[in-house]
Amino acid sequence: MTVREATSDDAESIAGVARVSWKYDYPDILSRDTVEQGVEEWYAPETIATEIDSDDAVVPVAERDGEIVGFAHAVEDETGGTILRVYVAPDHRDEGIGGDLLGHTHEALADRGAERVRAMVLAENEPGNEFYRRFDFELDEKSETRIGEETYRENVYVHE
User: Fold this and answer.
1) What is the pTM of this model?
2) pLDDT tens-digit profile of 93-108?
3) How many Cα atoms are found within 13 Å in the side-chain-facing hemisphere of 8?
4) Are 156 and 142 in contact (CB under 8 A)?
5) Quick one: which of 21, 92, 149, 152 has the most CB atoms within 10 Å?
6) How far is Cα 106 from Cα 49, in angstroms, rounded to an integer?
């Protein structure tokens, strides 16, 4: 398995990992329509390609046997850096891929000068919350995020 920075050619594969992950992770949290709206809004290939090409974004992918099996998306911001997402395709979980993506992303943000890194996860996504706690992120605040037409509670973790 290799972790590398994404290229715009990876946008379709990233969208595919997002779609299968959302369907797997959120059936009791998000409606089917909300999943489709969220994936289309946040992970449309042209949206991802724009983020990949952005100077303030970090978008690594995990690749195994020529297939994208996971990705992360983070941005530099006024707080230092914010990890917006870390997703691993369900068939490739529990192999350390998420941790590798998180480590790569955290290091890339630190290389850009971020001393404080935030991470966002839906409050009801207990496996996602546990993931960040396992890597010594501490719950810092609660906020809300909009997916499609709905608003959801979100936990904001921080690692300094």
Assistant:
1) 0.93
2) 999 999 999 999 999 9
3) 7
4) yes
5) 21
6) 21
